[in-house]
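The records we work with from here on pair a chain with its fold. Here is one such record, which you should read through line by line:
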Amino acid sequence: MKKLTRRKFIATASAGSVAAVASGAIPFKDITFVNSNAWKLAILGGTPVAPAKVWPGWPYVDENVVAEVMDTTKSGIWCRIQSPNNKVHRFENEFAKLMGIKTSIATGSGTQSLNTCVEALGIGPGDEVITSPYTDPGTIASILVSRALPVMADLDPDSFQLDPDDVERRITNRTKALMPVHMMGQPCNMERIMEIAGKHKLYVIEDSAQAHFAVYQGKKAGLIGDVGCFSFQSSKVLSCGEGGGIVSNNEELLDKCYTVHNHGTSKRGRTETIGSKYRMNEFEAATLLGQLPGVMDRHFIRNRNAKYLTEHLKECPGLVPQKLYPGTTEGSWYLYPWSYKKDQFNGAPREKFLKAIAAEGISLSPYIANGLHREPWTQHIQTLSVYRKMYGASRLRKFNSELHLPKCDQVCEDMVMLWASGPLLGTLADMDDLVNAIMKVYVNRDKLNSI
């Protein structure tokens, strides 16, 4: 038995010398191979790299979480308005401390947080908000429920984020705000987005649903624009099943957001404006509070492991990691994504690569099947009288013509990801399993089309 290092393995294998690798003559990192069957793709009968792989579980639960929820259950205080010493208020303050601000607002979902901000900024029928087609439907839902028009710009296919140049091309005299989405937990090109917003006097609502504690040019995601929103849905790196949060450096704006999310009733106890009841409940807050003691430790583990993956997969040109914009020093790493380069895998389609990886014991997957510009809502809103009256036939025809977003389509076709909230909390040995499985498939790329 001989241990083989990855570097020499790849150098030899990519030169077509898999037989030499199988003979044990070439080193590969941290794996001991007994016979040549270990080099054969598992889907073709070889030995899997990581059979029955088990990643750290998610959502995160420990005794602290259980204790907080039990305390809430026994207290009988299940709604924040029952007591001034409620857990929602406590969570809002603790989350704000982690963000470096005085306070925050907790809502029932990330979508509710976004819509609260749309309403608080006075955006409504006849107004337009430019955002990404590559996101959860909640992003556009937050605009649509206020009967404003979501205008989608195309992507930078290397970062999976909004292309600022295309954003600027789509600004009209109706545009009131930009809603960049920090996809996969990595910040957008906020330097350019803020320049554009300043030039055209637009609000910036950061959809930071996936980007908890990400840092860009010294600022936390969500605190770069006018206001930022988070999701605490069960898959997120800080989760309570459903839930959302609003942050801002503008305390006056946060006060307006509070009024909107509290069915239009202000902290002064007067019903002052239009608003839905978007308040977070005490059980959600308890679940979140129970996770806060270790949330930053988990954040730093994900960043360590993501950096390790990026470094150790440099020799695989078939998977290119998400481009990070200059100044991105910490990511949330909700997902760890790559662009799948079919030409580097002998033309094998992404589906065959994913099947081969799964057989090695590692589960990777696509993410969003198609952009929101390809969903039926784009036609449905044009049947509604409010959109026909407020925007007119000419603007709606232009809206239709702008639904051609080829770079977003490319991302949907090419992206491969590791869902990372739990898995990126693994050990470096777990990361080696992932890297070794990918490299094994890459070396055997000439076999993929026979799957």
Observations:
- Residues 1-28 have pLDDT under 50 and may be disordered.
- The first strand starts at residue 2 and ends at 3.
- The radius of gyration is 24 Å.
